[in-house]
Amino acid sequence: NAGVMQNPRHLVRRRGQEARLRCSPMKGHSHVYWYRQLPEEGLKFMVYLQKENIIDESGMPKERFSAEFPKEGPSILRIQQVVRGDSAAYFCASSYRENQETQYFGPGTRLLVL
Amino acid sequence: SQQGEEDPQALSIQEGENATMNCSYKTSINNLQWYRQNSGRGLVHLILIRSNEREKHSGRLRVTLDTSKKSSSLLITASRAADTASYFCATAGGGNNRKLIWGLGTSLAVNP
Questions:
Q1: H or E segment to which residue A36 belongs
Q2: Which residues pair with A20 in a beta bridge?
Q3: Looking at residue A27, what DSSP letter applies?
Q4: Angle CA(A37)–CA(B74)–CA(B102) in degrees, nearest 5?
Q5: How many angstroms separate the CA of residue A13 from the nearest CA in chain B?
């Protein structure tokens, strides 16, 4: 049973470009969470999704950021018109439907905006 | 805003010694979890303690929870060089609120 997969592992973008980060949850998991970690800091919650639904996006900036978790395929975190302050590690986690307490994390995508 | 605050921010010990890290939080919780992060890597779930539990063990790990003081501690006994990592506490609220609120972490260095 493969763990949570994220790709790409590293992403370099110039200011103004778009960044697309993908997350494939563990098999059987229908809950996905995105977190952002700035250098030398802890993680901050961004968004919580179930299949085809955004449940909680209270941690996501209102502009330029969007997330989706379609019926088929991975969850996507999309950042439009990236700025240097978007440089961070973005982690995805997933959890079981029945056991909702433990979240299993992917290896993260490290975004660098030049 | 951050929910948890870990202390110390950094801890350096010798192999074989015990390491204790503390975490405080601000609001009511459903459970508290500890994670480990090796440098530049992903997070590994270590242990979860529910709000109605006071102590939990897993191998060389011992976690306590004091809801009256809104604090938790993580004890790693007989530390090894491989325990060198950052350790984070994260709290989860009740009901449908499943997002984790994270502290800033404790950086542990275990010297051989």
A1: strand A31-37
A2: A78
A3: T
A4: 25
A5: 19
Question: Model confidence over B92-109: pLDDT tens digits?
Answer: 876 666 788 888 889 999
How does pLDDT run across A17-30, given as a tens digit for each residue?
999 999 999 988 88
Which residues contact residue B46 at a Cβ distance below 8 angstroms, ignoring those fewer than 6 apart? B33, B34, B35, B36, B58, B61, B74, B87
Task: Note whether B80 contacts A: Cβ–Cβ < 8 A.
Answer: no
> Which residue of chain B comes nearest to A99, CA vs CA?
B98
- Read off the amino acid at residue B21: M
Tell me whether the omega of the peptide bond preceding residue A39 falls within 30 degrees of 0, making it cis: no
In whole angstroms, give the CA distance from residue B45 to residue A81: 33
Q: In whole angstroms, what separates CA B86 from the centre of its chain?
A: 9
Report the residue from A55, A59, A105 with minimal CB separation from B43. Answer: A105
Q: How far is A49 from chain B (nearest CA, A)?
A: 10
Distance from CA of B45 to the nearest CA of A (A): 7
DSSP secondary structure, A61-74, as one string: -SSSEEEE--SSS-
